[in-house]
Each structure stands twice: as C-alpha cells, then as structure tokens.
Amino acid sequence: MIPLRDNIPSRRFPVVSLALVAVNVLVFLYEAFFLTQAEREALIYTYGMIPAEVLGVLPVFSAGTWDRLQPLLTAMFLHGGWLHLLGNMLFLWVFADNVEDLIGPFRFLILYLAAGAAGNLAHALANPDSPVPAIGASGAVAGVLGAYLLNFPRARILALVPLGIFLTTAEVPAIFFLLVWFGVQLLNGVATLGVPAATGVAWWAHIGGFVAGALLVVLLRERRVLR
Questions:
Q1: pTM for the full model?
Q2: Which residues contact 206 (CB under 8 A, 6 or more apart)?
Q3: What is the distance between the terminal CA atoms of the chain, rounded to a whole angstrom?
Q4: pLDDT of the residue at 57
Q5: 3: Cβ contacts below 8 Å, ≥ 6 apart
Q6: Rg of the chain over CA atoms, in angstroms?
Q7: CB contact at 8 A, 136 and 91
Q8: With b meaning 16 or more CB within 10 Å and e meaning fewer, what string describes 203-214?
Q9: Is 206 a catalytic residue?
Q10: pLDDT tens-digit profile of 130-159?
C-alpha cells in the first residue's frame, strides 16, 4: 500500500517538514547532476553510514569520535536513486505535517534527526561487520510514522493498493496501515539477522527509527491528542 494523504488537516503550515523534503531533494539533485560516478561513490563512502566504522570494528585511521559518528546523521540526507528518494519523501509528506503540528517545528526536527540516527545505529548493530554504506532517510521517516501511530491511530489513510496488474484506492485506518507496515519491516528484519549485509533495504533502520519516534514523541509532546 502506498499512502496518498490522510484525513487530518494541519492547523499550521509544516515549515520543517517542507524544508526537510526540499533539502533531501536538493542533495539528491546535486548527487545526480553535478557529480561523476566516482565522486558520488566517494560522497557515499564519506557521509554514508558504514556499520563497521561506526562501531569501531574496522580501523578508522586518525578519525576522531565525531568522524566515526557523524554519518549517523549525514547518511539520512543521501539517497541511492529516484524511487528511493520519492518513496521516502512521499511517506514524509503524508505523515509529517500532523506530527510537526502536534509537537512544534523545533521539537519535530529533534525527533526526525534523533529517530534517523537511532535507525542507523540499529542497522549498524544488526550488521556490525558490514563495510557497506547505508544511506537514506527511511529511519528518520520511520520515526515520524511511529510518532503518528501513537497520536493519530484513528486517522484514515487514503492508500494506493495494487491488485495484480491493476491499481485501486482504499481508505484504511492509520493504525492498520502503520502496524502492517511495521510488521513487514520486523519480519524482514528478523529474517536478515546473521545474513551478511549487502545492498538492499535496511530493515533494522526502519525498525529502530519507528520505535525511537514512538518513544521520543512521548517525551517531546506537550499534550496527548487522540483522533
């Protein structure tokens, strides 16, 4: 299922949500149109999150602590392709405005960055020896989904549903949509434990980000809102 919109209007313009979408798109356009293939690879290996380096399993030469940990943040602004970018940005746009509306722009930014870092760390812990850089905003976006589920479980999500070769739309409860989404991530994450990491989906980044977002929104919100 692909979310298209929800049925809860925001009370204020989602400044931070829009800014995050814009930054992710601009960084990807820079990657795609202003760098050579070799330069893109160098960028990903510099700012992508390499589990073995973050956890100190591989030598990091003379790099200090920040050099080892900064990819937990920078990796979430890099993407591997158009579909990777558009998928993350669609989920962010559908769900982020209500979470930002609930806790305010500054706290929302904290939640987004912290959930993204937690998701990347979860991926690193699940793949401690991996030299493969992980990139993408999916851990941070998953944090937004976790926060949304906790506060807007009764919302309705208009989703695009594939039926074989056909597509249709259906309105489903947010609690159903998000629990199914998380269940898929969890099943796939458990299935990859002990399997050497390769290029593909960072399931544990999704799981870690989702859980972190749900926990963080409890700490950051000023009041509880159920709809």
A1: 0.91
A2: 119, 138, 139, 142, 182, 185, 189
A3: 22
A4: 52
A5: 90, 91, 94, 95, 157, 158, 159, 160, 177
A6: 17
A7: no
A8: bbbbbbbbbbbb
A9: yes
A10: 899 999 999 999 999 999 999 999 999 999
pLDDT tens across 149-200, in order?
A: 999 999 999 999 887 778 899 999 999 999 999 999 999 999 888 776 655 7
- Could you tell me the two tokens for 168? 């249709």
DSSP per-residue codes, 129-151: T--SPB--SHHHHHHHHHHHHHH
Q: Point out the catalytic residue in the list 17, 123, 130, 206.
A: 206
Mean pLDDT of the chain: 90
Cα distances (angstroms) measured from residue 20 to each of 27, 130, 142, 193: 11, 28, 14, 31
Q: Which one of the listed residues 17, 79, 130, 138 is annotated catalytic? A: 138
Measure the CA–CA gap between 184 and 182, rounded to whole angstroms. Answer: 5
